[in-house]
Design brief:
The chain is an all-alpha fold. The chain has helices at about 5-15, 20-35, 40-50, 55-65, 70-80, 85-100.
Length: about 100
């Protein structure tokens, strides 16, 4: 099944290169798109996760972790196992934000 229009737009935003634009504007737009589309988009992303670029995976991990929603945690736990160190690092960072270590 091809990705929905909302997913395609999110993936386009996630594919933008690292830049001030990504961190100042695009990541906010991507997070807003996730929140607006809800559970269906998270489910679709989870099925597509292995087929998107490492940059898109890293950016996805960057925008996740603002809530402890089961779908966000599931995506982050998948990304945490990535063979790409930068993706795994971002996912671990986000998971630590959700589940901080106790001192």
């Amino acid at each position: 099944m091809p990705p929905s229009e909302q997913t395609e737009e999110l993936l386009r935003l996630l594919a933008l290169p690292e830049s001030d634009y990504w961190y100042d504007i695009a990541c906010i737009d991507a997070r807003a798109r996730l929140e607006a589309c809800g559970e269906r988009l998270y489910t679709e992303l989870l099925t597509l996760i292995d087929g998107i670029s490492p940059l898109q995976q890293e950016h996805l991990a960057y925008i996740l972790g603002e809530s402890s929603a089961i779908a966000e945690v599931a995506i982050l736990e998948t990304l945490e196992k990535s063979p790409h160190s930068e993706v795994a690092f971002r996912a671990r960072e986000a998971l630590h934000g959700i589940y901080p270590r106790k001192a």
